[in-house]
Amino acid sequence: MKKLLIISSDVIASKMAGPGIRYWNLAIELSEHFQITLAVPNYHTFDLYEELKSYPIKLISSESKILRKEATDVDSILIQGDCLWKNRFLRKVNASVIVDLYDPFVLEHLELNEDDFRGNLIYNNMMNILIDQLKFGDYFICASEKQKDFWLGALTSLKRINVKEYQKSKSFEHLIGVVPFGIPSIPPIKNKNVLKGVYPGIELDDKVILWGGGIWEWFDPITLIKAMQIVNQKQSNIKLFFMGINHPNTDIKRMKIVDETIKLSDHLNLTNNCVFFNDWVEYNDRHNYLLEADLGINIHKNHIETRYSFRTRILDYIWTKLPIISNSGDFFADEINTKSIGIIIEDINEINLAEKIMDYPGKTFYEANFDDLINDYQWSNNIRDIVDFLNKDFNPKKTFFDFGRYRQGSYIFLRVIDLIINKVFKK
After folding, report:
1. Among 65, 126, 225, 246, which has the minimal tally of Cβ within 10 Å of its Cβ?
2. The whole model's pTM is what?
C-alpha cells in the first residue's frame, strides 16, 4: 500500500477552520486507500485522539525536522499554502508532491492588503510562494472546474503546460484534478439544543439566520447588519447568529471586518438583541446549530476572490439541508439557483436583502432539492482524482531539462542554449 504524507497548514482540533477541516477529512477518506501520515502544526495541543482511534492514521508534528525525516519514507506528499516555502527540502524529495490550490490565497491578499502601504510587497511575497508551488508540484488539485481553468492559465504562464505534458494527455488530467471540499457521508442527527430557548436572547419560537463560519474581509457582513436593522423593526422574532468571530488558530490575527461588524451592530443596538456573535463553534457540534437554524446566509463582496472562491460553509448548509440566501458572483450561486436550494440576489443592498429575509418561505419549501447535491459532494466521491493519481506509477525524478521546473540558475543556461540554437539555424 502506498504511503501518503498530508501536511496541514492549519490547526486540526475540536475547533478548526476550512483548511484544517479539509485535511482532517481527506486524511480520513484516503486512509481507506493508502497509509496516511497526517502532520499538524498543533501536535502538542491536538485534542481529537478519540476520533483518531477509528482510523489507521499516523499523527506527527509539522515541524521541519520531523517532516524532513518523514518525507524520505513516503511515496507522495500533499501540501497547501506556504508549506513548500517553509520546507525547501521538500523540493528535492523522491516522493511526488501534490499541491492543493483549493484556496486561491493570492486573491485573498489583494483584498486584505489593498489599503496597506506594504500591500505590493506582501502580495509579491505571496506570489513567490505560489510560483514555487506551481514550479515544483508534480500534481495539482483545486475545488472546481472554474478554479481549474484559472490554474491552467497560471501553469501555462510558467511553461508547465507544454508539448511534453500535452503528449501525456491533451486534457492535462495527469497534471491537475478537481477535489472539492466535501460533505460527510453520514447524515447529521441533532443531539442537543443549542440556539432556540437555550442561547441567551434567542427564544424558542424565533427564526434563526446562521452565518456559518468566520468573518473574513472578502465577505459583506456590513450590508447584512444594516438589513437586520430593517428586519428587526418589522419582525422582531428573526435573529442572526454568527457561528465564529475568533479564529481557532491563534497565529491568524483577527481581521478588521470583524470589529467593524460588531461596532456597527452595537451602534444600531442590535447586538444581543437580534444579532449574536459567538466565539467559535466546535467542529463536532456544528450540525446542531445548522439543524436548528432556519436559514443559512452567504453575503460577499463582488471582486476577484469571490469569482474563484469555493465557500466551504455552503457545504455545511447543503449537508444539513439548510436553505441559503446569497448574492451572485461565486461558484455556489449557480448551484443554489439551478438546484433551487435557496435565493440568489443579483444586485444586493440592505433593503432588498431585508425583504428576501422577511419573505423567506421556510425550510420545507426547499428541503426535497438537496439530495443530489449531498450525494455529489460527499468526501468519498471527491477524492477520486487523488486516488487515481496515487495509483499510477510515477517517476518522481525531476530532470534538469524539465522546462516546467527549471531553477532560476538554470534559466540563464537554457536561455543561452536557446540563443545558440537560433543562431545556428539562422545560418
Report:
1. 65
2. 0.88
